[in-house]
Amino acid sequence: MTLVARPGALTDIGLHRKTNEDTFVVAPPLFAVCDGMGGAQAGEVASGLAAETLAAAVADGRPLLAAAEQANAAVFQRANDDIGHAGMGTTLTAVVLAGDTGHFVHIGDSRAYLLRDGALEQLSDDHSLVGEMVRDGRLSEGEAASHPHRSILSRALGTEPLARIDEFEVDLRAGDVLLLCSDGLSGAVPAEAISKALGRAAPDDAAAKLIAEARKHGGPDNITVVVLRLDEPRAADEEVTLAVPADEAATVVLAAPATPPEPQSAADASAPAPSRGSKRRLGWFAAVLTLLVVVATAGALTVSTVFYVGVDDGRLAVYSGLPAALGPLQLHAVYRRSSLPYESLGPAERRLVDEQGLHTRSSIMALAETLGMWP
Questions:
Q1: H or E segment to which residue 182 belongs
Q2: Got the DSSP string for 332-352?
Q3: Looking at the domain covering 4-255, what would its CATH class be?
Q4: For 77, 135, 223, 302, which has the most beta carbons within 10 A of its beta carbon?
């Protein structure tokens, strides 16, 4: 049976962090969570690069494990090429859904859970110091939750040339709920509260409740959740693809399924064929409509993948998209604001801003750090 995954996904900076180093991917049939590490925005770079590489590789048809290994190589190479990112890495917990099977890869201490018939099961093993101690019987689950070294990872993506990535499959059925999350949720919220939140019918509501629970329990870290409710397909199901940056807005491309041809009545069959002029007008209309669809799709992709530094109300900001407009349609949006005034910059720094050069997400964050945009 082919199951339909109805997703709900959110990320939150938490109550004690200055930046959000988590990234999630919701690009059916791929879903993933990455929790970066490395400090000075290196963790943000690692998780973003891993997510982007993984999603691109899966979209190109690569098996999930091979895509994860490609993501490992990309993060490791970036860390070696840039001394400012030396030692960075990220967790990765991802699933590709195929029919009624979930194909998973996992490394680090982000987690995959399955809620079935009200019972919550942790599907992934924590690759952390305390996780190994729990599996060896040296620590209980309760002791691990408060252990001072619980954040020390034994494995991570991008920290070595060849990562040891877990791979496993899970048979799924209608009514199951899958959860991928960073340890900002699992490290703070008891399993009972996670299970209760996942019992909500709407995945968006469940995701919002999980974020709220993590913040209620202190929000010590970035919090990211991807909730997937698995149902039998309906005739009107739509395909949804999301490309989501780490901490701001998401770009959503929604494509409805093609409408099946309607039966033709005898009256329709006997109707006169349209004139040549009508055909020309219909052809012109179809061409314009196609162009608008292409422009809209290109705009959505551009807004989610291209960035530049500009000025918003006198202060510096990172924008996603192009510094241009199509009539009344702006091709950009504020991705992240800084408190640094433009007037405080020197001549060389102002030139970097004024030229509005286009960058990838990771390189724009490096430029922003060079300009001193973040405290």
A1: none
A2: EEEEEEEEEEGGGS-HHHHHH
A3: alpha beta
A4: 223
Distance in angstroms (rounded) separating the CA atoms of residues 140 and 158 = 30
Write out pLDDT tens, residues 74-132. 999 999 888 878 889 999 999 999 999 999 999 999 999 999 999 999 999 999 876 67
Q: CB 146: neighbour CB atoms within 10 A?
A: 9
Distances (CA, A) of 104 to 33, 60, 98, 113, 330: 12, 18, 11, 11, 39
Segments making up each domain of the chain, as ranges: 4-255, 279-375
> Which residues are CB-neighbours of 174 under 8 A, at least 6 positions away?
1, 3, 230, 231, 232
- Average predicted confidence (pLDDT) for the chain: 79
Report the candidate in 86, 82, 90 with the shortest Cα–Cα distance to residue 108. Answer: 90
- Within the chain, residue ranges assigned H as helices are 42-59, 64-81, 129-135, 141-145, 183-186, 191-198, 203-216, 266-270, 276-305, 347-354, 361-370
- Closest alpha carbon to 69 in 48, 45, 53, 86: 53
The CA distance from 198 to 201, in Å, is: 8
